[in-house]
Amino acid sequence: MAWIEVIEPERAEGALRQEYDQGMQRAGKVYNIVKIQSLNPRVLHASIQIYTAIMHSPSELTRAEREMMATVVSWGNHCVY
After folding, report:
1. What does pLDDT average to over the chain?
2. Are 19 and 44 in contact (CB under 8 A)?
3. In whole angstroms, how large is the CA radius of gyration of the chain?
4. Which of 21, 37, 25 is nearest to 81 (CA)?
5. Can you tell me the distance from the alpha carbon of 14 to that of 71, in angstroms, rounded to the nearest whole number?
6. Torsion, Cα of 33, 81, 59, 38 (10° steps)
C-alpha cells in the first residue's frame, strides 16, 4: 500500500484550511480522499468542483443513479471509496 504525506486538519492553514472547513460543513468530517490532496490546495479545490459538478449538476441521471455508478466503478476497481 502506498504512503502519501497529508496535512491533517489541525495543521491546515490558508486555502487548505478553507477547503477543510467547507468539507466539515458538507460532510461533518474531512475524508481521506480530501486529505490525500492536501499538499496542493489548488488541485484539491478543482477536484471538489469537478466532483460537485458531476454529482450535483442537472442531469438526465438522478443523484441515486450517479451514486450507483460511482459505487459500481469503485467496486470494480477494488476501491473502498
Report:
1. 93
2. yes
3. 14
4. 37
5. 33
6. 0
pLDDT for res 6: 95
Confirm if 35 and 6 have CB atoms less than 8 A apart.
Answer: yes
- Per-residue pLDDT tens for 42-70? 999 999 999 999 999 999 999 999 999 99
Residue whose cell numbers read 487548505: 16
Task: Please answer whether residues 37 and 47 qualify as being in contact, where contact means their C-beta atoms are separated by less than 8 angstroms.
Answer: yes
Helices (H), 1-81: 14-27, 32-35, 41-56, 63-76
Which residue matches cell numbers 469503485? 74
Q: What is the DSSP letter of 37?
A: T
Cβ(7)–Cβ(35) below 8 Å: yes
CA distance 59 to 66: 10
